[in-house]
Amino acid sequence: MNVTQLSVFMENKPGHLQSVLKILADAKINIITLTIAETSDFGILRMIVNDAEKAKQVLHDARITCSTTEVLAVELDDKPGSLFKAIDAFVKNRLNIEYMYAFTEKRGDKAVMIFRFDDIETAKKALVQEGYQIVNKIDIIGA
Fold first, then answer.
1. How many domains, the chain?
2. Which of 73, 77, 126, 135 is the most exposed, having the fewest neighbouring CB atoms within 10 Å of its CB?
3. Distance of CA 32 to the CA centre of its chain
C-alpha cells in the first residue's frame, strides 16, 4: 500500500501555516512528517498525516486548497552514499523523481526517504527489483 501525502497550498504570509496547523490539531490529525516548498508568494506544505482523508475534508471545509497524492516511502541504508546509490538505481530504471524529502524517523538502522515519481507503480516494481524495501502506509502512520 502506497503512502498518501497531503499537499496544502497557501500564501507565503505570516499566520497561514499556523492556521492550517490549528485546523489539523483541532481535528486531532497527527502530522507524521512534513516539508514546505515555497516561492515568494505561495508555498506547498506536504505532509504525511495519520488520516489524510479526514485532514483533506477539514481543510476543504475551512476553504483551504489541498489535495492528496500517492508517494513511496523507501528504506535506505543510513550511511554515506546510500542516497546516491538509490538515485543511480532510479536513473538506471529511467525513473523520474518529481520531488523527495526525508522522513523524520528511522526504521531500525534504516533511513526512510519519501519520493514522488511520475509513474509510481513502475517505480515501485523497479525499486523492489533493485532490492529496496518499500515502507507500507500502515508502517508509516503506526496504525
1. 2
2. 77
3. 9
Identify the H or E element spanning 44: strand 42-49
What confidence tens digit (pLDDT) does each residue in 99-113 have? 998 876 766 778 788
State the pLDDT at residue 138: 61
Within this chain, do residues 116 and 56 fall inside the same structural domain, yes or no?
A: no
Q: Which phi and psi (to 5°) does residue 109 adopt?
A: -100, 15
**Domain of 110, in residue numbers:** 70-141
Q: State the Cα torsion 1-133-118-11 to the nearest 10°.
A: 80
Whether pTM > 0.90 for this model: the answer is no
Tell me the residue ranges of DSSP E strands in the chain. 3-11, 31-38, 42-49, 66-77, 97-102, 110-117, 134-135
Triad 69, 137, 17: Cα angle to 5°: 50
C-alpha–C-alpha distance, residues 48 and 29, integer Å: 10
Q: C-alpha cell of 122?
A: 513502475
Q: Which helix (H) or strand (E) holds 54?
A: helix 52-61
